[in-house]
Amino acid sequence: MANTNTNNNSNNSNKNKTNNRRTAAGRNKKSSRASAPKKSPKSKAVQATFKVIPLGGLKEIGKNCTLIECNNEILIIDCGMAFPEYEMFGIDIVIPDFTYLIENSHKVKGLIITHGHEDHIGGVPYLLKEISVPVYASPLAMGMISHKLEEHGLSTERHIIKAGDKVRIGDFKVEAVQTNHSIADSLAYSVKFPGGHIFHTGDFKVDYSPLDGKVIDLSRIAQLGDEGVDVLLCDSTNAFRQGYTPSEAVVRKSIDEIFNNIDRRIIIATFASNVHRIKYFIEASMKHGRKIAVSGRSMENVMALSKELGYMDDIPESVFVDISKIKNLPDKNLTIITTGSQGEPMSALTRMAYDNHKQVKLKKNDVVVFSSSPIPGNEKVISQVVNQLYEKRVEVVLASAMDVHVSGHASSEELKLIHTLIRPKFFMPAHGEYRHLIEHAKLSNRLGQPKTRIFVMSNGDALEVNGKKASIIESYTSGEDIMVDGYGVGDVGSSVLKERKTLSQSGLITVSVVIDQVSGGLMAEPKLNTKGFVYVQENQNLLKQAVSVVYNSIGKCSDEHTLDEASLTRTIKSDMKKFIYAETKRNPVIIPVIMYV
Ligand SMILES: [Zn+2]
Ligand SMILES: [Zn+2]
Fold this sequence. Notes:
Elements: E1 4-5, H1 29-33, H2 41-44, E2 49-56, E3 65-70, E4 73-77, E5 93-96, H3 99-103, E6 108-112, H4 118-121, H5 124-130, E7 135-137, H6 139-151, E8 158-160, E9 166-169, E10 172-178, E11 187-193, E12 196-200, H7 218-227, E13 231-235, H8 248-261, E14 266-270, H9 275-287, E15 291-295, H10 297-309, E16 334-338, H11 348-353, E17 367-371, H12 379-391, E18 395-397, H13 412-422, E19 426-430, H14 434-446, E20 462-466, E21 469-473, E22 481-485, E23 488-489, H15 494-506, E24 508-515, E25 527-531, H16 540-559, H17 565-584, E26 589-596
Parallel strand pairs: 4-6, 6-7, 7-8, 12-13, 13-19, 14-16, 14-17, 15-16, 17-18, 24-26
Antiparallel strand pairs: 1-21, 2-3, 2-20, 3-4, 5-22, 9-10, 10-11, 11-12, 20-21, 22-23, 24-25
């Protein structure tokens, strides 16, 4: 147990996310178990060791996935994806490394889902391709998961779980608790098992006037706290925000104001999954005699799902109008609800902004409402779309100017409330970048939690809990990013990415050489082809010189009797690299193609 460390604080936690590594060093479960303290027979039953293993979601916002392991049984909480970072060229999505779950698939009893956001469910099909496991989720999240599974041609045992439900999964007694968040049916989980009780908040906020009227179940959370919670895992996203996150009711007020004062066409961009907010847009539209058209694939999908699940039960079908039939409606009688609030290039709103939308042509005085805030990293593309809208003389309403959006995550005062109700033995900040986790750890410490009982961890670490003791086993398993590119999962590694980066920055030069197999002489002049390197027309001289470099390389190899493919390739590559760098200070990828005829 060389890596075990009972101190929490930043010392053992300042590993960078990029340091997440695959290592066997921590895989010493047996020896760790041997250190269980001797207790009286009575207490022995409840002194079982258990582990909490985050595979994703720490030191990042994305790919949340946490395991609870006890008595040779594993329960998974959430299985999300992350969006690729800027430097991940061509990567579609990033998922957790499931190696540990694949190696221990016989122990895995179930996967419970807190809510239907992609950072909690996006990895599900990729996990189910590897192992078979029953999935438990609330109706909306399950609807979204089912849709994904269909797309991937997968199926699995599925169970709907709702707030207040208690289910037994293996030895785990799971209870779903009502919370509030920016998507319907969000749940926190209490998980009890021999020797332990874990409370996982999921993504949450405390909203006393949510649009669906279902307030977070604080009284049940308090009771669970009274029963004793060993480890609290809690959303850290807004740990830096002072005070309270405003209620969704605030959005309702702003929307009313907009609808009361505007008699032009209103186009609202928001997150498709915020079903209750979308329902409110529809209700407000109905009140003002407007029909609703929906645009964008994910918006259409979620809308169909919400109707199917009964979220839109009191909305008559007659208020909806097909996006292809909006032409004859007066502007004051139309609301368009669309995807694209994040400036996504192919989204409906972006296509409208750039005149590429088949059915919607924007016109002067249209009102576009962004009922969203930029996800970090998207600011630039969003502002490009906004500028484009301004060019069209469209009126743009942003959340920064009017309360047309509120966060779905708890601010510091709400976090304090949860800590005070749960009073956990140990605390693990979850769901946040490193700075969020640290800030949340400080908040917990200020509330009286000793530093030695707060564990800021990295993906792939394990928190081992044994009665009153807990410690981190660093790098217990892999917490690496697994990159998905098209159909390939994990086949693009760091060397491929490096190559893509070089290609994107400096381009490519191929050098074709045809050699007479018998004489060893050149059959034709060497040919250079470039892509993304320099503008060929203006650089004829440079390319001519480059050809003479190739002649020299071949001459050199010929003199040394090393005209074999490997030596020739190596020499051309190295000489060409030196020449190009000296002339241009660039490092394109150089690919010699040698043919013997
Ligand atoms: Zn969420
Ligand atoms: Zn989340």
